[in-house]
Amino acid sequence: MISTAIRVARVGSAAELAAAALMILGFPALMLAALVPSVPAFAAAAAVTYLADHYLHRKGSYLINRLSKVRAGLSIRFLIRQLLLVLLLARLSLSDNLIFYSAIACFIAFYGLQAPHGALVTLIRNRRRMPVATRNVDLKSRVRIPDAPPRRLLHRSAEKMLHLDLAAVAGLLVSGVMDTAVAGFAGIGLTVGLGCLYVLALMPYVRGSKIPPKAEQVLAAVDDWLAVYKPETVLYFSGSKDSAYQVNMWLETMEQLDTRPLIILRERVILNNLAPTTVPVICVPGGVHLMNMDLTTVRVALYAANVGKNIHLLRVPTMKHVFIGHGDSDKLASVNPFSKVYDEVWTAGRAGRDRYAIADVGVRDDDIVEVGRPQLAPIQTWQGVPEARIPTVLYAPTWEGWDGNPGNTSIVLAGENIVSKLVKADPPVRVLYKPHPFTGTVSKEAGAAHRRITALVEKAAVERAADARFTVDSAVQDRARAELARIEARLAELSGAGGEKGDEAEATRDGVTDVKRHEEVARLRAEWNDAHWRSFPTWEHRVVTGAEPRLYDCFNVSDAMVSDISSVVSDFIASGKPYAVTDSGELGVEEFKRQNTAVRAAVILSNSAAELGGLLDAVRDPAADPLAAERTELKQYLLGPDEPKSIDQFNTAVADLALKSEARNVGQESRVTGANVDPAEAAELTNALPGQRMSSTGETDGVTAG
Fold it and tell me: Could you read off the pLDDT of 395-413 as tens digits, one per residue?
């Protein structure tokens, strides 16, 4: 019943649900206490509403947002509590007392201060919002960007301002139970005084040297940096917060390019969710600002997603445009007809080329280039199970999805059968269970199945630990745990050294990555992963959740995997290890393989998992593995050849396309020069400036800025 209430209220936990209930019930309790009247009861109910409200705000509860939509926002809740306090004073026969009128005057003045406070906060934020935000771009030497106001002034400012009424509320309640009004007057004075001081503290930050330069100066500084840096290859991305992973997966590849890279983002929320990188990043929300940006040195533009805002860069003829996507799969998104607007479409292997041919959406075969998947470089190829340990099988089911299709995940219909057979296997194997982080968010059956599987794995781990056949090398584990503690302490130190940027403008000014620190963090994370797996026995069943260890790390310590139709399977194929995929929708082996290219070299499991023995046999005796040759063939078909390395193929493709772009530009210049065009026009045509220059009236050249 509690889980149902949590889903209906859309809160994150039972604690949030309890806080929401206490806050909502607290206000009727306040009214009752005021009418009785009872000062202790009113004080208790007021404390509950203050604390519950504060807790829900800190948790970012969805309920808080909904209350604002139905005119029961934060300010209204504070106002109701104050009005009920005035009612309490009246019921205490203090309506003829000076303290009563002082309370009313205090709350009126206090709410009068909310307007200038809110206006100043909004003005400061607007004036400090620059037309572009950057990382790893040296604007500090080109324009003056002042420090951000202290975080304590702007962070959750409305909540802080409203909570200044605590002094008046507390003082008035004390006066309500005592004969003297001194406490009430003191509280009133403190609330109004602190409110005035808060407003005065904000005022210096709306003028003069406290605000960043105007948009024109910032944009000129960016163009100046671009002229010096001369970017050659751009990764362009636009999307929602939830799609940030689509650009993050390309960061390491961009860092390894032979040409000078640049990342252009269109939404500030993407910049805020961008993983650490050494590549220069420019976030340009405004379409006109982007089209006015000097990108004349760029020869290749890479696009990770098909979105409407791509048009703002696609219109530039001096560079070649490439769709690289964010992962190969058999989904319709992999053959979007929009892809024909690009000069080339890059796929991992032959499979991507064939998908476009079958889909017949207008992408020519000549425009498709196979470049492999550079992101899969961390996945190690299988060398067989080391003699020193038992085989490890990873169970990594995907989540249930939004449509209720039973074929989406194996966790509901087959999960327990799979794990039961694995933990009881003879000869024994180790089980790693890594569920998708969204598991159970839509289907309560999936959530319940996940909890049962977790309990099953944990119970099997306890039983194995008590089995005399499995021994523990305590010294090795102790050293590994000590190493983990050292690494985590150093990572925390490095994280603190980075510092929290005051706001976007300050982050733009100071957001230049320390390359040595960045490399040290990467090295420490690799060391952490190695020490993590050594900190417990190699035979111990584990449930793996959270961001660390990562999925690819689980791939590397496993000898086989059981999963569902998802990108997880396509990525695991890079290891060359045996794998099984569950036909939860019961399509049948032949139809299942026909519909899903990635399972053609897999052991296909029914919901009973009766076929699991075939997977275990292949792990224990690779020489007798009937699907080994098919996996090798499928790997090359989906992901391309192992040699040359994918990043080398990618760099070659970039270089080849850059040459085509340069040839086009030289040819255009020759044609314009030979046509005896007016010099001013010739300069614009030959350079084909990406900037959409605005006329003196502010009109653009016909392209919507969006």
Answer: 999 988 877 777 789 999 9
Residue 30 burial (CB count, 10 A): 25
Place of tokens 């509320």: 169
- Of the CA atoms within 13 Å of residue 69, those in its CB half-sphere come to 5
Tokens, residue 548: 């660390």
3-state DSSP assignment of residue 77 = helix
Question: Tens of pLDDT along 432-481?
Answer: 999 998 888 888 899 999 999 999 999 999 999 999 889 888 999 999 99
Reference 525, options 474, 490, 480; nearest CA is 490
| Tokens at 294, concatenated | 């000097």
By three-state DSSP, how is residue 386 classified? coil
Peptide bond into 116 cis (omega under 30): no
Answer for the pair 326, 350: CB distance below 8 angstroms, yes or no.
Answer: no
- Amino acid type, 706: G
Say if CB 157 and CB 57 are below 8 A apart: no
Is the CB of residue 5 less than 8 Å from the CB of residue 38? Answer: no
Q: Phi/psi class of residue 208: alpha, beta or left (left: φ > 0; alpha: ψ in -120 to 50)?
A: left
- Report the b/e string of 489-513 with b at 16+ CB within 10 A: eebeeeeeeeeeebbbbbbbbbbbb
User: What DSSP string describes 496-531?
Assistant: HHH---SSHHHHHHH----HHHHHHHHHHHHHHHHH
Strands 281-283, 133-135: pairing is antiparallel
Residue whose structure tokens are 């733009």: 508
Short-list 555, 529, 502, 556, CA closest to 147: 502
How distant, in Å, are the alpha carbons of 213, 282, 519 from that of 271? 21, 9, 21
Phi and psi angles of residue 237, each rounded to the nearest 5 degrees, phi first: -150, 140
Tokens, residue 9? 């209220």
What is the helix (H) or strand (E) element at residue 459, kind and residue range? helix 444-465
Whether the CB-CB separation of 506 and 125 falls below 8 Å is answered with no
Please spell the DSSP secondary structure of 419-443, one letter per residue: HHHHHT-SS--EEEE---TTTTSS-
Asked if 321 contacts 342 with a C-beta cutoff of 8 angstroms, the reply is yes
Exposure string over 321-347, b if 16+ CB within 10 A, otherwise e:
bbbbbbbbbeeeebbbebbeebbbbbb
C-alpha pair distances (Å), 272 with each of 130, 215, 326, 507: 15, 21, 19, 10
Distance (Å, rounded) from C-alpha 532 to C-alpha 550? 12
Nearest CA to 562 out of 526, 605, 597 is that of: 605
| Element spanning 594, H or E | helix 589-595
**What residues have CB less than 8 Å from 38, skipping those under 6 apart?**
none
**In whole angstroms, what is the distance from residue 651 CA to residue 636 CA?**
19
Q: Going edge to edge, which strands form the sheet with 281-283?
A: 133-135, 281-283, 261-265, 233-237, 300-303, 320-323, 344-347, 368-370
Model-level pTM?
0.83
Omega of the bond prior to 231 within 30 degrees of 0, cis? no
Could you tell me which of 31, 75, 30 has the C-alpha nearest to residue 49? Answer: 30
Ordered mean pLDDT values, 10 residues apiece, the chain (706 residues): 48 76 92 95 95 87 77 90 95 92 96 95 92 94 91 91 96 90 95 97 89 92 96 95 88 96 96 93 94 94 93 94 83 76 93 88 90 92 86 93 80 94 94 91 90 95 92 92 94 71 84 90 93 94 90 94 90 94 92 90 94 93 90 93 93 96 88 67 53 40 41
Backbone phi and psi for residue 560, each to the nearest 5 degrees, phi listed first: -160, 165
Question: Can you tell me the distance from the alpha carbon of 636 to that of 623, in angstroms, rounded to the nearest whole number?
Answer: 21
